[in-house]
Amino acid sequence: MSDILKYIYLAGMLIQEGIRYPHRLRQRKAWREGGMVETRMNALDFTIDMVAFAGMDLIPLMYILTPWLDYASYPLDAWRGVLGTLLLIGATVILFMAHQELAANWSPTLQIGKSHKLITTGIYHYLRHPIYAAVWLTGLAQWLMLGNWVAGPACLIFFLPVYLRRVPREEQMMIDTFGDQYRDYMETTGGILPRFGK
């Protein structure tokens, strides 16, 4: 069971990277051509991004593709595999929908482009931060599907500092850029969980 789940999880990682890749290429091109007007990234942001990358990508790959973390492995129950797979599918769908809506407005860091627009349609009608929601769901799937005390919780642990630091600064950047339009959006739309009754 554990080996099957490893490769299902690896397939999910590859699909998610396939979703992100064309947007990364477009964003890099815009940056090279002067399409970005502001960045609020600094050395600390870069450092914690790299820590999160280790927890979300490097450590799981190390566990899946090498025996280096086998000392921390444990057997998995079938229910964990089923639930983790469902969460991974849900995370991947949310990630795809978010990138489709954002298109050229997406940036992997705290950046604003020249033609940046506030997107409030599609999944952004329900969540202000669906990509972060997808990361959290992927992290839960990783914990459930990878039976390893190191690789399993790595995403949840290492992404937390990024999330706690970036979200308030990202929201402030959006307020600085879009003003009351973004404040009104915050009032009616949840962050990583839908806000019902508004």
Describe the protein.
This protein is mostly helical and 198 residues long. The protein has one domain: Four Helix Bundle (Hemerythrin (Met), subunit A) (Up-down Bundle), CATH 1.20.120.1630. The chain is built from 6 helices and 2 strands. The chain has helices at 2-32, 43-65, 78-102, 130-145, 154-178, 180-188, and strands at residues 36-39, 111-113. Strands 1-2 form a two-stranded antiparallel ribbon. Helix 1 (2-32) runs parallel beside helix 3 and helix 5 crosses helix 6.
Sum up the structure in keywords.
single chain, 198 residues, mainly alpha, Four Helix Bundle (Hemerythrin (Met), subunit A), two-stranded antiparallel ribbon, 6 helices, 2 strands, 4% strand
Q: How many domain units? A: 1
Run of helices and strands: HEHHEHHH
The low-pLDDT segments are none
Large-scale geometry: globular
Q: Give the distance, in angstroms, between the N- and C-terminal Cα atoms.
A: 43 Å
Helix % is 55-70%
Number of strands: 2
Largest sheet composition = 2 strands, antiparallel
Structural class: mainly alpha
CATH architecture descriptor: Up-down Bundle
Largest beta sheet: strand ordering: 1-2
The Rg value, from CA coordinates, equals: 18 Å
CATH class assignment: Mainly Alpha
Beta-strand content estimate: under 5%
CATH topology: Four Helix Bundle (Hemerythrin (Met), subunit A)
How many helices in DSSP terms?
6
Mean pLDDT: 92
